[in-house]
Design brief:
There is one protein chain. A two-stranded antiparallel sheet has the order 1-2. Strand 1 (about 185-190) and strand 2 (about 195) form a beta hairpin. It has helices at about 10-25, 35-70, 75-80, 90-105, 105-120, 130-160, 175-180, 200-215, 225-245, 255-260, and strands spanning about 185-190, 195. Helices cover about 65% and strands about 5% of the residues. The chain has one domain (about 45-65, about 85-265). By secondary structure, it is mainly alpha-helical.
């Protein structure tokens, strides 16, 4: 059967249009002092600049891997693929992954970049400029990430859900991309790791933004601003899942050591009815 060809420029254009439409919908009726505007700018920019350009390369890598599977010399390549048998994480694994997601290099790096852009835009203006202003912005963004991660892992434990990300057992760019996006709002439950809709995953990004707005942001910010900020935090989660899905890390890599379950996959054993 003839396989459809993926035109990278067409795909890039379609995804860009979708992201712009999403951005315009969220930003409708806002003024120039919209606090979510800066988060939108950085998260969307990072998402588009990192994820979209690498998709053609990922498609080539996927084709190469499938071709290798059909050859007699594919044993070495297949040994690097994840184990797709679901293994429920231990408490140690959960704690290590929580620490990575809440206080690791990724949230620190993102907070530093977002704080720098907000510093350039002088948002919020009440925090002014200079080292003091940047410190407040950096601390705010890092605290939002920590609150969001704490909410997700804490509620997941209460709901007996597995909040870790598991790579797809499927093949092909678009099935794996779909799996990464869907996993943003799902979790694993039970000994078989069946997929369920995750309320903790839905609440977590908004818990972080709500805490910031009502905890330390200037009083003129309200729930509407917190909701908008949470929307873009959710989009950031999508980008993070895409990274974990496609950028496989070897068992001895730094990411694998810190994000312990990244080397495991999980079969799609269905949805909980």
């Amino acid at each position: 059967m003839i396989q459809p060809q993926c035109d990278s420029s067409t795909f890039r254009a379609k995804v860009t249009i979708l992201l712009r439409g999403y951005s315009a919908t969220l930003a409708s009726g806002d003024d120039m002092e919209d606090p979510g505007m800066n988060l939108r700018r950085i998260i969307l920019s990072l998402f588009v600049s990192v994820c979209i350009p690498v998709l053609p390369l990922l498609a080539k890598a996927q084709s190469s891997r499938e071709a290798g599977d059909a050859s007699a010399t594919a044993a070495g390549t297949n040994s690097a693929l994840p184990d797709l048998t679901y293994i429920r994480p231990t408490q140690t694994t959960k704690i290590r992954n929580y620490a990575f997601d809440a206080f690791g290099p990724l949230p620190i790096g993102v907070a530093a970049v977002v704080a720098g852009i907000n510093q350039e835009d002088n948002s919020p203006p009440e925090w002014k400029q200079g080292a003091t202003g940047y410190s407040r912005r950096f601390g705010s963004d890092l605290a939002i990430a920590a609150v969001s991660a704490t909410t997700r892992y804490g509620l997941s434990e209460a709901f007996r859900e597995d909040a870790l990300y598991y790579r797809c057992e499927c093949k092909g760019i678009f099935p794996r991309l779909s799996h990464a996006v869907i996993s943003t709002l799902t979790a694993r439950r039970g000994e078989d790791g069946h997929r369920v809709f995750s309320l903790p995953a839905l609440i977590a990004p908004y818990a972080g933004s709500m805490t910031a707005v009502y905890g330390w942001y200037p009083s003129r910010y309200d729930a509407k601003d917190a909701f908008r900020m949470g929307n873009y935090a959710m989009l950031g989660y999508v980008g993070a899942n895409i990274s974990l899905e496609f950028f496989y890390s070897a068992p001895r890599s730094l990411l694998s050591r810190m994000h312990l379950n990244n080397t495991h996959g999980a079969p799609d054993s269905g949805w909980n009815q």
